[in-house]
Design brief:
Helix content is 44%, strand content 16%. α2 runs antiparallel to α9, α14 crosses α15 and α20 runs antiparallel to α23. The strands form four sheets. The protein has an eight-stranded antiparallel beta sheet with strand order 12-11-10-6-5-17-18-19. The protein has a five-stranded antiparallel beta sheet with strand order 8-9-13-14-16, covered by helices on one side. A four-stranded parallel beta sheet has the order 2-1-3-4. A hairpin with a 5-residue loop joins β17 and β18. It has three domains: 159 residues; 229 residues, no CATH class; 228 residues, no CATH class. It has 683 residues and is α+β, with helices and mostly antiparallel strands.
Length: 683
């Protein structure tokens, strides 16, 4: 029955592509979109019949380019995927819904490569249903149906399939047998780079040269990289007192090109009893889209395209839809509660090196209204409660490591080797130095942080009172476990009494650039915020609210930390890559401040100790303490680190109750006795 429906849908789409529709702007849209869908039906058959494995590299490259050429920057100006272009052709309302539809049809690329006929079919039928509404309008003598009529078709498509899609998404995360990517990774010859084109992602020289570079590396280096990655994951369980033996699945998220590393990591995880789930980054309205891509993926074909469609859900979101989504997620977890219980958490490989990206904010793109922003925040909170019910935060962990890609510049291989060195620094050395910082900080009532030069930071961060300083500590001594590389000391500060201004001249968060970012805190909550990205102040505030605050009215200061990795800081200076480093490394290069949840989100009641045996007691703040009354008020399900680099830092002083202070950093250098080694890279 399904195959018959599929055949009928493909046949009708081929008719439309062949000219079987009305002329004019809408006819052009449907013919072009139908041609794209029909081409993907051909691709599915080509792959089913073994065409990928028979094809030469050049043929695979031509196919890959054809599938993505419409959204490449040089063509995007006249693509229906571009909401600004679609609005210029169809008007703002119709342009928004037809751009949404066109983008959803692009998700067929992944399903064609995965040979997933059901997923292709439901989207083909969606296209035909929208086309039928236009055909009916034409028969009635109208130019087109109303934009709201088309939006309703999209709305009920997303709502009707929500349960099946929620189950599919969770299955990809929890079940290793959903192994499309794993088979490519483990069964392909890494020396034969044709395998990169088997995933269905857009492949650039970044993926190809990354794979070549790893292929040239000695096996010992690959082993060291993989061991650091997988040991970080294992140690994350160990230091938090969590039992990894209860877990059976680890979710590997990585960028294409690193398959040789991942093959080794899969073996390492098997040695500790874990099987990998490896799923694709979101590409459909059901999986989530945007600039922060979670899952395996390649470098984006067009970051502006990703940004333009990050809020596509605004076309659908209302209370009924949100409730439907939550019901679907709960039902999916109910079916897979046993698998959820043995899910260990993600092991992430990140990459960096692309040119900094400042998006164009387009009024034609989908955007949340104020009411939708409030609803989206409520939805995220409720979703987090459901997820934590089945995958308890206090029982799972994660790890994250980052490497450069060739886009970083001509000295790529040299920079890559330097980052490997940074990722494998001697954690014992840092552990001892960081303990000296913690010993000083534990004497403080609050910490005073001030910028220098053009940096306007003037902030007071209040710490928890230690009932027993001989046995308790506020700060965790973090070496190389979940957050690779070393090193930092961090805490969850008190909100009451945390006041002042955090400022940084330039910072990159989740792939987006922020210029002259300034946040004002009152009692630990964001009271005001601004940046200098755009000419209009309202655009700057919206940029921060959308991408840092995730549509909340305010967020707490969830973490205060001091990064100690001066080796990474000076490497960034040496190679001129400070603007390209991920937050994973950048947060180790100076004090950093996270807005959102604390660093112990959903783990507040666990007991953990530093290497010196002291119990870490600063595990919550006044907001996360609300979990005892209302879980949805306690968590925001976001955590964004903002770092002040050493060369913008004038002073960091631990201030005791009597007003006396212990200065740890002055004018960008560590001045606390016993921390001299941290200044060595500066010279």
């Amino acid at each position: 029955m399904e195959a018959e429906r599929y055949g009928l849908a493909v046949g009708r789409i081929r008719e439309i592509a062949g000219g079987g529709c009305k002329e004019g702007i809408y006819g052009s849209y449907f013919r072009k979109t139908a041609s794209f869908i029909a081409a993907l039906a051909d691709v599915r058959e080509y792959i089913r019949d073994g065409g990928l494995h028979r094809a030469a590299l050049e043929e695979l490259q031509r196919l890959n380019h054809r599938l993505y050429e419409d959204v490449l920057p040089e063509n995007y100006g006249e693509s229906y995927a571009n909401p600004a272009y679609a609005a210029s052709v169809f008007g703002p309302d119709m342009g928004r819904v037809l751009s949404f539809l066109y983008t959803e049809m692009r998700s067929l690329i992944a399903f064609a490569f995965e040979q997933d006929m059901p997923e292709m079919l439901i989207r083909m039928e969606l296209f035909l249903e929208v086309y039928s509404s236009f055909a009916c309008a034409w028969e009635e003598g109208r130019t087109a149906p109303g934009a709201e009529e088309v939006r309703q078709v999209l709305y009920w498509f997303a709502s009707d399939y929500q349960e099946a899609e929620a189950e599919r998404k969770l299955r990809m995360q929890l079940k290793p047998e959903e192994d499309f990517a794993l088979r490519i990774i483990m069964d392909s010859d890494p020396e034969d780079l044709r395998y990169l084109y088997y995933f269905g992602e857009y492949i650039t020289e970044n993926e190809l040269e990354t794979a070549r570079h790893l292929n040239r590396m000695p096996e010992g280096e690959i082993r060291k990289m993989a061991d650091t990655y997988t040991e970080g994951y294992r140690i994350g369980f160990e230091v938090c007192g969590k039992d990894i033996s209860k877990k059976k699945v680890v979710n590997i998220r990585y960028p294409l090109g690193f398959e040789r590393l991942i093959r080794r990591a899969v073996g390492n995880f098997a040695d500790i009893g874990l099987k990998p789930s490896i799923y694709r980054a979101g590409h459909s309205i059901f999986q989530g889209k945007g600039v922060n891509r979670i899952g395996y993926c390649a470098v984006s074909a067009n970051r502006q395209y990703d940004y333009d469609h990050k809020d596509d859900e605004a076309l659908l979101l209302d209370r009924q839809y949100a409730n439907r989504c939550l019901e679907a997620v709960r039902a999916a977890f109910g079916k897979m509660k046993e698998e959820a219980a043995v899910f260990g958490g993600p092991a992430v490989v990140e990459v960096f090196g692309e040119e900094p990206f400042v998006p164009e904010v387009k009024p034609e793109a989908c955007a949340f209204t104020e009411k939708q922003q409030e609803l989206a925040a409520q939805y995220r909170a409720a979703l987090g409660v459901i997820q934590n019910e089945y995958m308890k935060g206090e029982e799972r962990s994660f790890t994250c490591i980052a490497f450069p890609i060739p886009a970083i510049g001509e000295r790529y291989e040299e920079i890559f080797d330097e980052i490997v060195k940074i990722n494998t620094l001697d954690y014992n050395l840092y552990r001892g130095i960081q303990q000296k910082l913690i010993d000083a900080l534990d004497q403080a009532e609050y910490v005073r942080i001030r910028g220098m030069g053009r940096n306007r930071t003037d902030l007071k961060v209040r710490l928890h009172r230690l009932a027993d300083p001989e046995r308790e500590t506020n700060f965790e001594n973090c070496v190389a476990d979940v957050n690779i590389p070393v090193g930092e000391v961090f805490t969850s500060p008190l909100l009451s009494g945390t006041e002042g201004v955090l400022h940084v001249g330039r910072v990159f968060l989740a792939g987006l650039e922020y210029r002259d970012l300034e946040i004002t805190f009152r009692d630990g909550m964001m009271a005001d915020y601004r940046c200098g990205n755009f000419d209009k102040e309202e655009e700057n505030r919206k940029y921060i609210r959308d991408n840092i605050m995730f549509h909340y009215d305010s967020l707490p200061l969830g973490e205060f930390a001091i990064g100690t990795n001066t080796v990474a800081y000076m490497a960034a200076k040496k190679y001129g890559i400070g603007d390209k480093l991920p937050i994973l490394i950048a947060e180790k290069m100076g004090p950093h401040f996270a807005v959102g949840d604390t660093c112990y989100s959903h783990e507040e009641d666990l007991v953990s100790y530093n290497p010196d045996g002291k119990k870490i007691v600063a595990r919550e703040n006044e907001v996360s303490a609300l979990r005892h009354e209302d879980m949805e008020k306690a968590y925001f399900h976001c955590h964004t680190d903002i770092t002040i680099p050493y060369d913008e830092l004038g002073e960091l002083t631990a201030v005791r109750e009597d007003g006396s202070g212990i200065t740890l950093i002055r004018e960008g250098r560590f001045v606390l006795e016993g921390c001299e080694e941290l200044n060595r890279p500066f010279s």
